[in-house]
Amino acid sequence: MWRSSLSFSSARKLLSSSSSSSSSSTHHSFYSVATRPLQSLSAAAPPSHPNPPVAATSGVGLIGRADGVRGFASSSPAAVAAAAAAFDVSALASSRARDAVDLARHYGRCYWELSKARLSLLVVATSGTGFVLGSGSAVDIPGLCWTCGGTMMVAAAANSLNQVFEINNDAKMKRTKQRPLPSGRISVPHAVAWASSVGVVGTALLAYQTNALAAGFAASNLILYAFVYTPLKQIHPVNTWVGAIVGAIPPLLGWVAASGEISLNSIILPAALYFWQIPHFMALAHLCRNDYAAGGFKMLSLGDALGQRTSLVALRNCLYLVPLGYLAYDWGLATGWFCLESTLLTLAISATAFSFYRDRTMQKARRMFHASLLYLPVFMSGLLFHRVSDNHQDLSESRSLKYNELSSSLETPLEENGSSKRKKSARTQARPPVAYASYAPFPFLPAPSYTVPH
Q1: How does pLDDT run across 305-324, given as a tens digit for each residue?
Q2: What is the CA radius of gyration of the chain?
Q3: Measured between alpha carbons, how far apart are the two ends of the chain, in Å?
């Protein structure tokens, strides 16, 4: 009868009395009540408490197990303090880990934007293509990886220094004012330290893993881009042509890293990069004419409101791309299929340039810009797919042999002494004549070197 009339408040009093009592009989009676099912306690509760408090209900649920009561009764203030201290230490460590992750993410994003990573990856792609073309039949995969890594570092350094020098100009332009330096997300000394470190490491990597000539191309290109092209953007429109030279050097760098020399065939891809950049940047300059004017950059489009000169320059340089496919085939760099594909591709981009020249609107300029974005990867892919292995050696040797056969057939058998033999040997070792007019469209490139067969 006592158990059936037990109220919720009496159970709570019993809990307090059982925790303070030390006699075995009291403990026995407490456990006999506490271990009864929770349904019987709630059913025997008087009508005055239809909805018991949540805290009380959880208390009864907690004491429903003897192990939980023993653990609760045996806990001491020292144990509670130790648990609280351990919780504070873990919370502090978790907070510091989150802060470190956020900091690394912040600077990683800043470095990515300072490096203009997508543009740098394009530079790496042209350098890697030049490396494969200069490798002949066997491509050195570790050397290719070292070349691409060093080129990426040097390109990132050049782009970072470019933003350091143009911080005030970028702050005035809509498309650049959210960059890390104008927005204040990173300091100028930090950006300079980043650019200097990756530039030095990239150049040293190329010098150690490839050769000194490739490292020299990388260092000179960094200086040309950061200290010549960048200030010229605020002085004269010739900066576009200087920037085109900067873009033409990476494929030559890759070729030199693979072969160690500059040959006649090595200028095909640099020439394509040089002439391709002119219509690409002319379209961009026409589309962003107002933005460039606000930033203080002296582009050709600023003095050409109607876009007549800008479109004419773009069309002319598109036409310069037409003979490159034939030259690649004639010089033994690629097969005849590439000659056909390159001609069709160049005629397509020339058609967009001619359309922009006839109707100088933003829509036509944007179409030519998109065509230029498509041209370069297709051209490089075709050149890699249709390339001829060991072409830079076979071409030089075949030309040397033809010249030697021609010179030997013209010799008269009048002199049979030792002096005539020495003259014949000297003529055999002579270099073949160079048709300088054959690469007249490429005046910015050095004269080709020939490998004399032994």
Answers
A1: 888 999 999 999 999 999 99
A2: 39
A3: 119
